[in-house]
Write a structure and sequence with these properties.
The chain is built from 2 helices and 4 strands, in the order E-H-E-E-E-H. It is of the alpha+beta class. Strands 1-3-2-4 form a 4-stranded mixed beta sheet.
């Protein structure tokens, strides 16, 4: 995180255990302190048990966690038509989310 400029974006791919395991608390604390989490996306069931966390480096303020886009593909096979539909739906939601966040920031 130190090499990312304030306002820069970070995409992290983590084991899903980062969200709840006591051993990963220090990592969660760093994410909480130094970034604004924009999205948490759980990968499809036939991939490794991963989460993708999209973050923006911020001013170290907990107030920056007001809105987070959360999506889960954990019950969907990545090779299915359902995945394509859900992926497209998520991309549309992401686009709307970012547009709202940008307009709220102004």
């Amino acid at each position: 995180l130190e090499s990312v400029k304030k306002g820069g974006f970070i995409v992290g791919v983590f084991s899903a255990t980062i969200l709840y395991n006591r051993k990963t608390k220090k990592i969660r604390d760093v994410i909480w302190k130094d970034t604004r989490v924009l999205a948490i996306i759980e990968t499809p069931k036939n991939m490794a048990n991963l989460v993708i966390i999209i973050m923006e480096k911020n001013q170290n303020s907990i107030e920056n966690f007001e809105s987070v886009l959360v999506a889960s593909f954990s019950n969907i096979n990545i090779n299915s038509d359902e995945f394509d539909k859900e992926k497209d739906k998520l991309l549309n939601e992401w686009e709307q989310f970012i547009e709202e966040e940008i307009s709220d920031a102004r």
